[in-house]
From TrEMBL, chain A:
Subcellular location: Cell membrane
Protein name per its UniProtKB record: Sugar ABC transporter permease
Source species: Streptomyces bangladeshensis
Transmembrane segments: 33-57, 88-113, 125-142, 174-197, 230-257, 277-301
Annotated SUPFAM superfamilies: MetI-like
Membrane topology of the entry: Multi-pass membrane protein
PANTHER family, A to Z: BLR7065 PROTEIN, INTEGRAL MEMBRANE SUGAR TRANSPORT PROTEIN
Entry keywords, A to Z: Cell membrane, Membrane, Transmembrane, Transmembrane helix, Transport
From TrEMBL, chain B:
Name of the protein in question: Carbohydrate ABC transporter permease
Membrane topology: Multi-pass membrane protein
Intracellular or extracellular location(s): Cell membrane
Keyword Transmembrane helix: yes
Family stated for the protein in its record: Belongs to the binding-protein-dependent transport system permease family.
Annotated source species: Streptomyces bangladeshensis
Protease as UniProt keyword: no
Length: 312, 274
């Protein structure tokens, strides 16, 4: 019980009178943070700085002696190389296509799940499952089990209705990769949008309904504006993950048939072609692209975050 | 009319659930078929069931055994998750319960590192590992997976620890409880479900990772997703084996994901959505 009175008394004068002790205490507060902070700076920031430096060198790992500084040559080469330019375009198409399609599908599913019906929990579980398949396994599933022209499930089902038997991957390679990713990412979007739907102000919706608003009017004027930031968040987080996608491209097409995106190209240019300088320049370009997305993402996250903090 | 429509929409939701789950159900069914039955067109839904695909996957047919890869993945995922918790818990404490000055800035620094594409750091990490003789070493992956998951964990745990009412902690302190006691008796019971969910999500991301594992490991430290890349090129009749492999390797993720279902959104949206 004595601590009741001494603790606050001891704390107050120390802060005002003894300066070093206050500084000590500030460091004591910071101390638990430092290991994580130092770890992150060393493991994530230093390699990036190294990438930046390497990107200014002409450096093929097979000819290490010929390494020399070339300024912006690698960037010029990356930006003028037809293959690399194509991979930038592929990355944009892949990311935008997957994000938009899974966002729309996710919205529809979230709206369906936002109402009471028998077995809602089971349906939710069924819908989440695709997101919980290991990405390489999911890509293998689509490549061999669904898309295979001879014994894949798609052509098997088409067989019943006497439909054509297309070779999905070689006919529409990018679409084939995108479809598998949409399947995996729709549950992600659905979960975020469902959380958004469930944080709506129910009283406001009831009031609108009492005033005679139709379902569509409620959706258009209440639900959609409320969902806007959740849609943005889903789109931005989805973009950040899908811009970096490697697994699906690597597995389904091995980067062939014009589906090589930037991460695959970076992987290929140093892992197979041993062009360290070029790979780094391409890597820096991926980062610049991501920073553009990330700036918006951070803004959305911080506005949601501030709302949470002020609500608490 | 309204009842009819409501029933219709429920049916539609069920239909959507089944369509999305169908590929997984088909994968599971195929994994229990013989290779000959797995590769028919039209598909054989009612063929006899067998465990041959699983036997084949676990190496009875003379192929490489998946056990070393499964063990490597377990080591990499569990060890990195523990390391993440060790680093993230004190950090989250300093960002929520006794916040440092400008704690939101620190929080956003962690988040911004997550937005740096992994591929950008890959080359220097590869060169470093090569020089330090760390290629094909599972502990290198442990360190990298820790850095990959630390921002997510800090964000999630910050939001879970912030849910512990300050008044309760103050009351315990006033009653003379020391920090370890406060952490164990007051903070832990409230934050534990959240911490568990965080750990499960970190486990999933580590288990799934391919790019780093593919580039930085070889024979010894190969992980389960790298093992799966062995199935990229077709090898005659091997569908049942592929399905068995994909399913077995996805099982830990499915289990962890369903266990963390309620907190999954919070983790995936880095704590922005509750």
């Amino acid at each position: 019980m004595t601590a009741t009175t001494t603790a606050p008394l001891a704390a107050t004068p120390a802060r005002t009178v003894r300066q070093p002790s206050a500084r000590l205490r500030a460091w004591a507060t910071r101390a638990p943070l430092l290991p994580a902070l130092v770890f992150m700076i060393v493991v994530t920031q230093l390699p990036f700085v190294a990438t930046l430096v390497i990107s200014f060198f002409d450096w093929n790992a097979l000819y290490p002696k010929a390494r020399h500084f070339t300024g912006l040559d690698n960037y010029r080469e990356v930006l003028t190389d037809a293959d690399l330019r194509h991979s930038v375009w592929t990355t944009v198409l892949l990311t935008a296509g997957v994000v938009l399609a899974s966002l729309v599908l996710g919205l529809v599913l979230a709206l369906l799940l936002d109402r009471r019906f028998r077995g809602r929990g089971i349906v939710r579980t069924l819908l989440i499952a695709p997101f919980l398949v290991v990405p390489v396994a999911a890509a293998l599933l689509w490549k061999h089990v669904l898309y295979n022209p001879e014994y894949g499930l798609f052509n098997g089902l088409l067989h019943y209705v006497g439909g054509p038997q297309p070779d999905w991957v070689s006919r529409t390679p990018l679409l084939a990769v995108e479809a598998s990713l949409v399947w995996q990412w729709t549950p992600f979007m659905m979960l975020i949008l469902l959380a958004g739907l469930q944080s709506r102000d129910q009283q406001q919706i009831e009031a609108a309904r009492v005033d005679g608003a139709s379902d569509w009017q409620i959706f258009r004027h209440l639900t959609l504006p409320h969902l806007r930031r959740y849609l943005e968040l889903g789109a931005l987080l989805g973009s950040i993950y899908i811009v970096q996608n490697f697994d699906a491209v690597f597995t389904i097409t091995s980067g062939g048939l014009g589906t090589a995106n930037l991460p695959y190209t970076v992987y290929q240019s140093f892992y197979q072609a041993h062009e360290n300088g070029l790979a780094s320049a391409a890597g820096v370009l991926v980062v610049i692209g991501s920073i553009v997305i990330a700036t918006f993402a951070l803004r959305v996250v911080s506005s949601l975050f501030r709302e949470e903090v002020s609500r608490a | 009319m309204s009842v009819l429509r409501r029933g219709g929409l429920g049916l539609l939701a069920w239909l959507a659930g089944i369509v999305f789950f169908l590929p997984i159900a088909w994968m599971a069914l195929t994994s229990f078929h013989s290779e000959a039955d797995a590769a028919t067109n039209p598909p054989s839904f009612t063929a006899a069931l067998t465990l041959d695909g699983y036997r084949e996957f676990f190496g009875s047919g003379g192929g490489a055994s998946p056990w070393p890869a499964l063990i490597n993945s377990t080591v990499a995922s569990v060890a990195s998750t523990l390391l993440v918790l060790l680093l993230a818990l004190p950090a989250a404490y300093a960002l929520s319960i006794r916040p440092v000055k400008k704690w939101t800035d620190v929080l956003f620094f962690f988040l911004s590192t997550k937005m740096l594409p992994a591929v950008a750091g890959l080359l220097p990490i590869y060169l470093f590992a090569k020089n330090a003789q760390l290629l094909d070493n599972i502990w290198l992956l442990v360190v990298l997976y820790t850095s990959m998951n630390l921002p997510i964990a800090v964000w999630m745990m910050q939001s879970f620890l912030a849910e512990v009412p300050v008044a309760v902690i103050e009351a315990a302190r006033v009653d003379g409880a020391r920090l370890p006691v406060i952490l164990a008796r007051v903070v832990a019971p409230i934050a534990l479900p959240g911490i568990a969910a965080t750990a499960l999500i970190c486990f999933i991301f580590s288990w799934n990772e391919l790019l780093f594992a593919r580039v930085l490991t070889g024979v010894v430290a190969e992980t389960a997703p790298v093992f799966l890349t062995g199935f990229i090129t077709s090898q005659g009749l091997f569908l049942a084996k592929v399905c068995a492999a994909s399913l077995v390797i996805s099982l830990p993720v499915l289990a962890a994901g369903f266990a963390a279902q309620d907190k999954l959104v919070q983790g995936l949206s880095l704590g922005a959505v509750k």
